[in-house]
Amino acid sequence: MRRRWTIGNCWLWCERTALPVLWLGPVLWEGGNAPLHACEGCIRHLERKVRGVLICGATPSPAPERRQPVPGDCWLWCQRIALPTLLLGTVESAGHQVPLYGCESCIRRLEDKVRAALPYVPA
Ligand SMILES: [Zn+2]
Ligand SMILES: [Zn+2]
Question: Would you kindly state where each structural domain of the chain is located, as residue ranges?
């Protein structure tokens, strides 16, 4: 898959807008997918997390249920560990397909961004 830098908003930690971002992968979103974009710094941050997960060998099941909380670590803003998390989507990182998890409050925060970014979200 070819990756292309575009100018957009970073949806991860820095939350900056109008900067070069890369498409990371689809996040599950109310019956559809939303494209997740992140800037270079945040992608590096994510890749460090991913590497940690891979080294631990904690490969999550390939198709976890959406909205089925699993105990784990939030990968988003709060960075809390060992709390119920939900699958957000799968991102491509360092040649791996990696499931991305977040806690409920961080997912809500991301969903607000998605809602603001998508032009065609039904009311
Ligand atoms: Zn960023
Ligand atoms: Zn969180």
Answer: 5-117
Interval between CA 6 and ligand 1 midpoint (Å): 13
Q: 47-68 pLDDT, tens per residue? A: 888 777 766 655 555 554 556 7
Ion ligand 2: residues, CB < 5 A: 74, 76, 78, 103, 106
For ligand 1, a single-atom ion, which residues have Cβ within 5 Å? 10, 12, 14, 39, 42
Position 103, amino acid: C
Cα 87 to Cα 122: distance, rounded to the nearest angstrom: 22
A 10 A CB-CB count for 117 gives 15
Residue 117 identity (one-letter amino acid): A
Query: How many helices (H) and strands (E) are present in the chain, helices listed first?
Result: 2, 6
Cβ burial, residue 77 (10 Å; 0-12/13-18/19+): middle
